Amino acid sequence: MSSVSIRNVTKAFGDHVVLSEFNQTFEDGEFVTLLGPSGCGKTTMLRMIAGFEKPTSGEILFGDKVVSSDRVFLPPEKRGIGMVFQSYAVWPHMTVFENVAYPLRIMKMPKDDVTRQVQEVLEIVHLSQYAQRIPSQLSGGQQQRVALARALVAKPELLLLDEPLSNLDAKLRESMRFEIKEIQTKLGITVVYVTHDQTEAMAMSDRVVLINRGKIQQVAPPAEIYDHPANQFVADFLGKVDFLSGEAGGGCIRLDGIEQTIPYDGERVGRVEVAVRPERITLSTKEGTLRGTLVNQYYLGDVNDCRVQVGEKQLRVITEPETYARMKLGDPVYLTFREQIVFDEEGSLEDKLKIVT
């Protein structure tokens, strides 16, 4: 398999269109995340790649081989894929070794080959010492690694993961993100990963496919999609952001509800929407572009998460933790946007500004 190609795929259940004209190619060895809110169609797309659902129209290819089309439909067991679901789905009465060996025994692989391949994959997922334990003796993260090992043991060229970390606690989710990415890099397999968690998508992906209401909104590497969102939905879904309306012209934008201006050297004139991320605002007690009042601050150890009232608007500012001890509520403060994104009223990407402080 050199790639997964999805060509003009639409999926409808009766009159309800879940996905509309989905077109993408996932390259060999690439880690691609399908990201979006609940009900956007991302899991349906994954199930069509796996063969659990048939497209209403369009076709899906693995390399040059058509696996789904109007005339062809290859069942899941013949697609050579591995799949990990949201639930662990491990056999409770089987040991770790037996759980992982199950797909190979279904394939009637010789016993010695089964033992060798299971031992290899348990080593990869750091479960060798637990081979003879049953799932009830394992933590949630260890059970999820059993499910991952079972999906990998038959050496698939394509691994599909459907929100596999959502049942884990925060610390386990964080560690498992890096483990899955390390395994994918080591084995060089193609991964299509479904999640609604933006942090997972940012940490793990080579590219993110952001979907909303059945339509692709943007496809890009994490840094590009974060810094250059295609529209306001993308900016809002991926990361923290505040939106401010205003009037552009004369080298500045006059912000509604604030009655202050920020510098603007773009070509837009008239109504605009300004998106600004809280970690890209400089907060000072001495000088800045906008004047405001500190109305709340939350010490989180690594950052000080502030709320600043500017006119009728309240802006979130994430700044250095040391500022927490130096400021008190009600203090006058100044804000400068180090970076902002300006959209037109329809929400298309207008341009990106860099303001020199």
Give an account of the 3D structure.
The chain is of the alpha+beta class and 357 residues long. The protein folds into two domains: 3-234, P-loop containing nucleotide triphosphate hydrolases (Rossmann fold); 241-354, RNA polymerase II/Efflux pump adaptor protein, barrel-sandwich hybrid domain (OB fold (Dihydrolipoamide Acetyltransferase, E2P)). It has nine helices and 21 strands. The chain has helices at 42-50, 96-106, 111-124, 140-152, 170-187, 198-204, 222-227, 232-237, 323-326, and strands at residues 3-13, 16-27, 31-35, 57-62, 65-68, 81-84, 158-162, 190-195, 207-212, 215-220, 242-249, 252-255, 261-263, 270-276, 281-284, 290-299, 304-310, 313-319, 332-337, 339-343, 349-354.
- Overall number of structural domains: 2
- Major sheet description: 6 strands, mixed
Helix content: 10-25%
The first-level CATH class of the largest domain is given as: Alpha Beta
Number of helices: 9
Using the coordinates shown, work out and report the CATH topology of the largest domain: Rossmann fold
Do you know the CATH architecture of the largest domain? 3-Layer(aba) Sandwich
What distance separates the N and C termini? Answer: 50 Å
